[in-house]
Amino acid sequence: MEAVIDIKVIKTEKSKLPGTSLENLPFGKVFTDHMLEVEYKDGQWQQPVIKPFGPISMLPTNATLHYGQTIFEGIKAYRTVSGEPYIFRPFDNFHRFNISAARMMMPEIPEELFIEGMRKLVEVDLDWIPNKPDHSLYIRPFMFATDEAIGVRPSSTYSFYILLSPTGPYYSKPCRIYVEEKYTRAAPGGIGFAKSGGNYASSLLAFAEAQAKGFDQVLWTDAFEHKYVQEMGTMNVFFIIGNTAITPNLEGSILEGVTRSTVITLLQEQGLKVEERPLHIDEIIAAHKAGTLKEAFGTGTAATITPIKELNYKGYEMLLDTDKWTISPEVKRRLDAIREGREADVHQWMFPVKG
Ligand code: COI
């Protein structure tokens, strides 16, 4: 892509990097020196600026604070073994961002602004990409309404930002999952497919109650019967039953994960049949009882591939011996190999940071 947008760059006078350890990083707590900021007004995106990371000033009447017109993405940048920096599948996140924008009545972002803005920002903060297995530079684009008025209507002005956060794994060990039946994450016609803050806010109570019972996450079920599994709080979900990988089909209430799509491709390349279809909890229980439930795992940008070691449905415990698994560890091994440049990137998932 030929870069023609004019991005103003104001560099920090003092980098925080010398005082920051890039080892054992928690998710989402450390941020780099710079951020990208662009305003939308008068029906147009204004000049993007890369500037020192810092506070955003707003009035208490800011529309987002009241009605939550806000969307975001999660993307990762890596270094290959030869040291070259790449961003993983940024165009897929760009497309999803605009799908979220349309659903939330927000303006679309031009491809060049999203992709070149991100590439340039990563280039400015290149030294922040961690060089350690399972670590990466997490990229967080987000947009929110900025009208200063509390009438309920779409804002006419917006801000778009990109932040960078060097990070380690979101889950450092296999998860215990609680199958949620009381609360609902999303219903058909709602915003489940959009990456909007409200989806996450409404998940927090169910998550807190599951955590209080000793679980790491919830597995959401459908809004009508609470029987068909959907996705987890921060990840899509896959089950390997016999020789088939099954993941819930995207029917409007499920987020179309970029890692989900990557994993489907890699599983198929490993010779597995992959089915995207409604998956009833009884089918999972029956497979567990029959010994054909071989593996279960979550996929997400932040979470990458996270094994599920326990699934709890109404007190019925399905325990899984993650040590014996071969299929999802092989997917993870290949994904890491592609990201680290040790396996050919035949799908052209890796987007170079250096133009
Ligand atoms: C991601 O995987 O990038 C996510 O956005 C999930 C979560 C951290 C909100």
Give a written overview of the molecule.
The protein has 355 residues and is of the alpha+beta class. The chain folds into 2 domains: 8-169, D-amino Acid Aminotransferase, Chain A, domain 1, CATH 3.30.470; 175-339, D-amino Acid Aminotransferase, subunit A, domain 2 (D-amino Acid Aminotransferase, Chain A, domain 2). Helices cover 23% and strands 28% of the residues. The chain has helices at 63-67, 90-103, 111-124, 197-201, 204-212, 258-269, 281-290, 327-339, and strands at 8-9, 34-41, 44-45, 49-52, 70-72, 75-79, 85-88, 136-145, 158-167, 175-179, 217-221, 229-232, 236-241, 244-247, 273-276, 293-300, 304-313, 316-319, 350-352. The strands form 2 sheets. Strands 1, 2, 3, 4, 5, 6, 7, 8, 9 and 19 form a 10-stranded mixed β-sheet that branches. Strand 6 and strand 7 form a beta hairpin. The protein is globular, with a radius of gyration of 21 Å. Bound molecules: 2-OXO-4-methylpentanoic acid. 2-OXO-4-methylpentanoic acid (COI) is lined by residues 74, 200, 234, 300-303. Its EC number is 2.6.1.42. Keywords: Amino-acid biosynthesis, Aminotransferase, Branched-chain amino acid biosynthesis, Pyridoxal phosphate, Transferase. Acts on leucine, isoleucine and valine.
- Give the cofactors and ligands: 2-OXO-4-methylpentanoic acid
Please identify, by name, the CATH architecture of the largest domain: Alpha-Beta Barrel
Cα separation of the termini: 9 Å
Low-confidence stretches: none
| Helix and strand sequence | EEEEHEEEHHEEEHHEEEEHEHEEEHE
- The number of distinct β-strands equals 19
Please tell me the overall pLDDT.
96
Counted up, domains total 2
Helix content: 10-25%
